[in-house]
Amino acid sequence: MAMQEPTFFILTALAEQPLHGYGVIRAVADLSGGRVTLRAGTLYAALDRLTEEGLLVVDREEAVDGRLRRYYRLTDDGAGALSAEVDRLRANAAMAAARLRRTTRLAFGAGR
Q1: 54-79: per-residue pLDDT in tens?
Q2: Is the pTM of this model over 0.90?
Q3: Right CATH number for 5-110 from 3.40.50.720, 1.10.1060.10, 2.60.300.12, 1.10.10.10?
């Protein structure tokens, strides 16, 4: 099943290193070129779901200015799910590119 775009970017954001919630929000915005913007409530619901699914774990918690900051990390299952999604997206892009090349050849060939 296809991964939702916000999930894809959350997992991608966490692929290099553990991040806390606000760090994930910033990374997702950067990675998506600003197309995907996560609100805190949406993010934390997604983080809880992905943790329950075993794709993420809490790496550590630290107190900052009296507030608990929780860092999340990608699990091996999470890396596998992200890798499978990358493969799916690549295959879809390759198929679309091949069709476009055929269409372009047909269009230019028909005009001769």
Answers
A1: 999 999 999 988 888 999 999 999 99
A2: no
A3: 1.10.10.10
